[in-house]
Amino acid sequence: MLINCSAYVQGSKLADIAVADIGRHLARPDCFVWVALRDPGAAELEALQEPFGLHELAVEDVLKGHQRPKVEEYGDTVFAVLQMVDEAGGELVIGELCIFAGRNFVLSVRSRTDAGFLGVRERAEREPELLRQGAGFVLYALMDAVVDRYFPVIDRLETELDAIEERIFERGAARRNIEALYALKRRLGVVRHAVMPLLEAGAHLHGGRVPPVCLGTQDYFRDVYDHLLRCAATIDGLRDTVATAIQVNFSMVAIEESETTKRLAAWAGIFAVATFFVGVWGMNFERMPELKWIWGYPAALGFIGLVAVLMWRRFRKAGWL
Question: pTM for the whole thing?
Answer without folding.
Answer: 0.80
